[in-house]
Amino acid sequence: MTPFKRFRGLLKVDKKDIYQIFLYSILAGVISLSLPLGIQSIVNFLQAGKVSTSWIVLVIIVVLGVAMVGVFRIMQYRITENLQQKIFVRSSFEFAYRFPKMKFSKLYPYLPEELANRFFDTLNVQKGVSKLLLDISGAALQVIFGIILLSLYHSFFILFGMMLIVLLYLIFRLNFSSGVATSLKESNYKYKVAHWLQEIARNHMSFKNKRVFNFSLDKNDDLVGGYLKGRESHFDILRRQFIQLTGFKVLMTAGLLIIGGLLVLNQQMNIGQFVAAEIIILNITNAVEKLFSGTELFYDVLASLEKIGKVMDIELDAEEEGQYKLNEKPIAIETRGLSYKFPDSDQFVLKDVSMEIAQGDRILIEGPNGSGKTTLARLLSRVIEPTEGMLYINGTNYKKYSLEDFRFNISTINVNDNVFEGTILENITCKNPDISLARIVSVMEDLKLAEYIKSLPNGLDTKVHSGGKQLSSSIVEKILLVRCVLSDPRMIFLEEPLENVDKDSAKEIIDYMTAKDKPWTLVVISKNPYWKSKCNKSFYMEQGTLKN
Ligand SMILES: Nc1ncnc2c1ncn2[C@@H]1O[C@H](COP(=O)(O)OP(=O)(O)OP(=O)(O)O)[C@@H](O)[C@H]1O
User: Fold this and answer.
1) Which of 117, 139, 198, 253 has the highest Cβ tally under 10 A?
2) What is the ipTM of this complex?
3) Strand 463-464 to strand 422-423: parallel, antiparallel, or no bridges (unpaired)?
4) Which CATH architecture has domain 3-312?
């Protein structure tokens, strides 16, 4: 999709509001037109030395006209304010809705946090769109109306006006594509710089070392260099456009002054009309100035829409209606000849995996680094789709169950998972009102978290920072596990859990997770030998295949 199409799509949603803004612009434009006409008549009256009732009426009409334009403006501001609020709300929900639903295979080439930064471009769109709608639509109308009005004075102005509009359009067309392209290039570097700063911030401890510190500054220098280059090339387009527009203004002013002067000299126009024409010319010149600043903004808005649009274009998981519903029992999974390769690679990372996981099984997946354990768990938990082979859930083709239903019934803890900003209670219950406090306390005791929570002055209401900064890594692991158990899963996938928990506590937690009475099927990837002693089955992976 081109940036311009995205822009049109954005406006389409709020078509009604935009029509209203245009309507007020047209009304204000028409009234503004009457201003020079009124002034022309006032000058004529004054020249004739008459202060008549008509003169007073005319003054009142002109003043009222100015007031009316103000009223229309206020109405426009109200609508654009609503529009800005809607753009913000819509964009934030789009981001919040989409990230968890993005297809893993489409998202993995990106760093999700970096993509989330693009939300800030919403602010550019918000401000830009309202300014474009208010100022630029007004300015464009002013140019058109002004030229129409001038043409009333003499037919010669019609030709001149049309020539100017064509010229203005040509200037716009000439610079449009390169204006958007360079603005996008500049924006790309802006994100690269922001991303690098994020990396430095995230690894600030490692960057304290002088050598790493120097490297960080050198890399920043490279990226900023790219940004400045991008900016310069964008500025070149703006400068070119400015020179062309200045030429346009010079041509217009000179042309209109000369034509106006000649018409006065030839007595085809009186002085009042000449003054009025001057006001119109001044209006048109100001409007052209606004159009120039508007195009600069327009390029930036299109670039911002493109940056946001690339995130919105990432394909989401299919939301098909499932034919069957999962029941209350633990889930069973079977695979036959399952193979997987990443979309941009020709090598299979999983080859011909056939396995059976019965209801209530406690399964351990083992194997050396890079053997495909995580990929297998992702296939079983339907994060990714098999390239070849079959996957059965409770004995049926996995596609018969909707992804939503399946995900509602499983719980996964991945190696990089962490707590989110909020209270500990929010982190373990996600504000689910069906989970009683007694249950929370009991699960926390079973998973060895209760003692720690009791030691906190605010207990479960203690706020945790994003990434669990003030928490020890073992506490984070326990919080994630409590959340997992409290979500009542029928199947649990754990990737390297309890790596940081003390041996004795880990044993007790493993005993709990693998106990026969627990209503789930469990799949664990771990190097801890205690899991093996408690699981009823284990699979050993090697170079993408299952070894028996
Ligand atoms: N995005 C990717 N594109 C291409 N290959 C990938 C990608 N991600 C992982 N791989 C490859 O897939 C193979 C299996 O990786 P996987 O993470 O499943 O192994 P693992 O057994 O879980 O490893 P570890 O024990 O180190 O976590 C590895 O060879 C890895 O290099």
Assistant:
1) 139
2) 0.95
3) antiparallel
4) Up-down Bundle (1.20)
